[in-house]
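Retro notes
What went well: the complex prediction finally ran end to end.
Inputs used:
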Amino acid sequence: DGGITQSPKYLFRKEGQNVTLSCEQNLNHDAMYWYRQDPGQGLRLIYYSQIVNDFQKGDIAEGYSVSREKKESFPLTVTSAQKNPTAFYLCASSPYRGDQPQHFGDGTRLSIL
Amino acid sequence: AQSVSQHNHHVILSEAASLELGCNYSYGGTVNLFWYVQYPGQHLQLLLKYFSGDPLVKGIKGFEAEFIKSKFSFNLRKPSVQWSDTAEYFCAVNVPGGFKTIFGAGTRLFVKA
């Protein structure tokens, strides 16, 4: 079955450490997204990519970085500059540029040690 | 900037009760509107969408939503809820041709059997 795989499911970060969250899709979708979900705030867009080797900042990109070297992969790095990284991170995809997100992964829960 | 407001964070209903979840957005131009649902233990998924045409749209599992342009609203309705409708519901909006879909904070619905 096609879908989005996020790993790991749970991740712990030490102060000052960068961590990378994996997102892989086998749907052949052009567009991929990273959202952050905090209680009572819904999903907020971190970064999005409409095509390989291209990505744009969302509403809360500070302290995060991404790459899109392959169509199927869109990893998110939470850097030490992100002062409040504890959250649930969701990766999503859509078939075409400009589409709304249509498929979501299971998410990664990041916590600070 | 666009924003989406969902009026209720938590709703508790008995089976067979009618459901209406409120959603308002702020944007003066043409928008696409969506409702997503996340059932316990499952991925977030698209419930229904409005792009243009008939402002009353029907989705899966008996849900419908009505777009009222003058009120900037896109409320979700179901005449008779079931225990299996227990989930979190998110309203979302994007601009046609744009790349950013903005989500509301979500409404947790609990249906008592």
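What we learned: The longest strand of chain B covers residues 87-94.
What to try next: split runs per interface for comparison.
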